[in-house]
Amino acid sequence: MKIQTVNDSSAPAASVSVSVSNKGVSFGSYLAAATAAESGPAAELAAYAKMTPAQRMRAAALDSMGLKESDVANMPPAARQNIEEKIAAKIKEKLDAEIQKKALKIG
User: Fold this and answer.
1) What DSSP assignment string belongs to 49-104?
2) What would you report as the CA-atom Rg of the chain, rounded to the nearest whole angstrom?
3) In contact, 58 and 88? CB cutoff 8 Å
4) Burial class (CB in 10 A: 0-12, 13-18, 19+), 87
5) Span 13-67, pLDDT tens digits
6) How far apart are CA 58 and CA 84, in angstroms?
7) Which of 56, 44, 48, 45 is CA-nearest to residue 91?
8) Which of 49, 58, 43, 45 is nearest to 88 (CA)?
C-alpha cells in the first residue's frame, strides 16, 4: 500500500479562531467550583492516604479535641503551646498502648 501526500502551497493555510467570552464569570468562581468538586469523601480519603503515620496520629488527636489545623494556627502562642502539649500527650498514649499491645502478643 502506498500513501501519497499532497503538498499544495497555493492553497490558503487553515486558520483557527478561538474566542473566549467571560460573560461575567470570574476565575475565582471557576476556582471555587473546582475546589468544591475536590471536596467530599473521595478527596478526604485521598488526603488521608497521603498522610504519614505521624500526621494521621496528629489529625486523630486534633479530631478528638474537635479542632482543625487551621484552628491551632490561629490560636495565640500560649494557647497553641498548650494544645501542642496535649497533642503530644495523646500521641504518646497511643504509641504506648500499641507497644503494650505488641508486647502482650510476643510474651
Assistant:
1) HHS-HHHHHHHHHHHHTT--HHHHHTS-HHHHHHHHHHHHHHHHHHHHHHHHHHHH
2) 28
3) no
4) buried
5) 555 444 444 455 566 666 666 666 567 888 888 888 999 999 999 999 999 999 9
6) 10
7) 56
8) 58
Output the nine-digit C-alpha cell for 72: 491551632
CA pair distance 97, 49, nearest whole angstrom: 23
Q: Global pTM?
A: 0.57
**What element of type H or E holds 28?**
helix 27-37
